Amino acid sequence: MNSVRFFRCCRPLFAAALLASAALRAEANTPAADPVEGIWVGHIGTPANQAVLGLKVTRDEKSGLGATFSLDQINYYGEPLQGFKAAGDGTYVDATLGLKLRLDGDRLTGEAGGSTTPVELHRADRMPEDPPVPVELSRGPGPRWQRKLGGAIYAPAALHGGYAYVGAVNGVFNAVKLDDGTVAWTFGAGRAILGGALATDDAVYFACDDGRLHKLNRADGKEVWRYELGDAQVPRVLPDPNRDEPDNYDFAGPTPVLVDSTLYVGSGDGSLHAVDAASGRRAWRIETRGKLRTTVAVSGANLAVGSDGGMISLVERATGKEVWHFDAKFPATGAPAIIGGRLVIGTRGSALYGINLATGARDWHIGFWGSWVESCAVEGSDGLGYIGASDLRRITCFDPKDGRIVWRTDVFGAPWGRPVVTAKFVYDGTADYTPYNIRHVGGVVAVERATGRLAWRWPLPHPPGTYCSGFAASPVLGDGLLVIGGMDGTLYAFPAE
């Protein structure tokens, strides 16, 4: 047999031998399987504030161990862990969640977040998955009426005397009849209006991004006076996927508060103003740290205020003199509330605080699993507190005495607004934004107050080509209607009970 014919005849044998040799070399170069590989599911946190954690550990031939995780309370599903690795002696660590875990048979236990949060996992067949919006869920009563106002609405409406008063980002302030949604009058402010209005028997007050506090005649919308807040040049960045600076999601504005003929309102330049309601003249002005985009809370002779700079302060109403301050370290973009004798306020540091009004000391705090707390808390007739969040995607019912969570309900979108609480329901709007690594859907929701069961959800579809939609404004209740403005520029009125 000549060599060419021999090679042709034996080529299949040579190929098999080469493949076998390559497989042996690959096997020699592949690290041995690590006993932690596989799927682990269990709990992270204390029984009072606990989440379901899933961990899928795999091995890459080049980079070694790798892992993805799912965490139901923050709605992360299949997110990568950065730097998951074996640390020796049967322990494993990662930087994303601050995990330090020890393998013990079919148990993986330890801590997260710098050894402060307990973790216990067990082997499982599958990772947790993002629950779908229940298809059988009721859509509720639907709007009684809806009115296009020409610009996205971030501000809560003020209801008074059969009218809703609300501004929009197009700079137009509107008086809308509650019985049928028709517009009674408008006032052109010229710049975006993101704060809520205050309506009295004879006047309407609102702050505008033109740097002014406006007083209008409630009957016809004619301007009575304007007061210079001094923040017309302060930049504002509404939700934008292409902007990553700290000022992003700067969509809130303060509602003026009236006590004993004096208006109190914050400004984007970090100042707090006391203004005579009749004349529009300044009573006093003080500087704080960071933008004041939220409404003050009144506590007797004092005011509570939270700033973008993370400073939460109690000041005297008469003079503006500081009584105490609490440094939350993170922006307080949700307005303060007085509930159960405590100052309750959330921050972008993923915490809700209960602060002692007498001393300014923290009495308790609730962790929100990495989610901003953009919402403002509200007290129900049962004495409990209710608040929304952001990426947590849940409405939380809590005891203001100790911060104990009574229930938490997934509403499938970001409940940024302050909830409305009735004897039967907790109402709120939800925002959605895409592209994003967490699924949110916009709509209006009603949760059973006593049980936390999601009773109905009225969806607002996401318009093509937009990033943020749904509802950012807080709902308000009056004349048997739940009134809320949408980022689609429409004011909606739903029957409420």
Helix/strand layout:
Layout: H1 3-29, E1 38-46, E2 49-60, E3 64-71, E4 76-80, E5 85-88, E6 91-93, E7 100-104, E8 107-112, E9 117-123, E10 145-148, E11 158-160, E12 163-167, E13 172-177, E14 183-188, E15 198-199, E16 203-208, E17 212-217, E18 223-228, E19 257-259, E20 262-266, E21 271-276, E22 282-287, E23 297-299, E24 302-306, E25 311-316, E26 322-327, E27 337-339, E28 342-347, E29 351-356, E30 362-367, E31 378-379, E32 385-387, E33 394-398, E34 405-410, E35 420-421, E36 425-433, E37 443-448, E38 454-459, E39 468-470, E40 476-478, E41 481-485, E42 490-495
Antiparallel strand pairs: 1-2, 1-9, 2-3, 3-4, 5-6, 6-7, 7-8, 8-9, 10-42, 11-12, 12-13, 13-14, 15-16, 16-17, 17-18, 19-20, 20-21, 21-22, 23-24, 24-25, 25-26, 27-28, 28-29, 29-30, 31-32, 32-33, 33-34, 35-36, 36-37, 36-39, 37-38, 40-41, 41-42
Overview of the molecule:
- With 497 residues, the chain is mainly β.
- Helices cover 5% and strands 44% of the residues.
Which key phrases capture this entry?
single chain; 1 helix; mainly beta; five-stranded antiparallel beta sheet; disordered N terminus; 497 residues; 42 strands; nine-stranded antiparallel beta sheet; globular
